[in-house]
What we know:
By secondary structure, the protein is of the alpha/beta class. 28% of the residues lie in helices and 34% in strands. The protein has helices spanning 23-52, 55-69, 109-112, 134-138, 174-180, 197-200, and strands spanning 72-75, 78-82, 90-101, 121-132, 142-158, 181-183, 188-191, 204-214, 220-230. Strands 1, 2, 3, 4, 5, 6, 7, 8 and 9 form a 9-stranded mixed sheet that branches. The N and C termini lie far apart (83 Å).
Amino acid sequence: MPEKKPITAPGKAPEAGGKRRPWWVRVLKWLGISAAVIVALVLVVVTLVVWILSPAKLTPLVERHASEYLNADLRAGRIELTFWHTFPHLTLDVDSLRLTSRSLRGLPDSIAATLPADADSLLALGRFHGEIDLLPLFAGRIALRDVELHRPAVNLVQVSDSVANYLIMPPSDEEAVADTLQLHFQRLAAVGDDVTQDEARGERAEHRVKFEQRGNGDKEDEQECGQSHERLR
Length: 233
C-alpha cells in the first residue's frame, strides 16, 4: 500500500527537523568538553605518577639522580608526593635530608688538614614541605610555593674563589637549571628546634648558618650567626 503523507493545513509549510543552535553556542560547547577532557587527563596522569612513585620508589630514585647530577651526595629518610590529600595542590615532603659535598675531595693534604671535620657537610634539613604548581610542571619548569624548612643547618666552607663546598652545580648547566627551577614563594618559613607551636604557625622561626673561609693555611676566618626571621604569609 502506498505510504500516506501527513496532512498539513493549507498555506503552512511542513516543519523542518530541529532548529540548529547558533554556531558560537556549538563552539563554546566543544571548548567546554575539550577543557573537561584535558583536566580529566591531567588528574589521571598526576594520580598515576603519585601512585607509581611511592616513597619507597621515589626516595632512592631522587637520591641516585641528584647524586649523579650534582657534585654531592644526597640522602633523605623519606621523599613523598601527595595529591588528593592536598587537592588541588601537588605537595612534596622530604624528611631528614643531608647534602654532602664532593667538591673538596682531592685537595692536597696540607690544605685538607686545615679544614674542619665537617667541611664536606653542606646542608642538613629536618623536614622540607612545599607545594608544586602543576601548570609550569607540564611546561618543563618546577615552581614551588608555600615552602617550609624545618631545622635547616647550612655549613659553607670556602678554600679559594674556585674551591668551596657549595660549588656543586655543573658549570655548563647553571643557566639551564635557573630556567627550569623557578621559585615563586607565597610563603617561606624556616622553623628551628626550639620553636613553639604558635611560632610554627606563622610568627617567628630561627635557623643557624655557619660560614668558614680558609686561606692557604695561614689564616682562618670563621663566622657563625643565628638569625631570627619572621615568616612570610
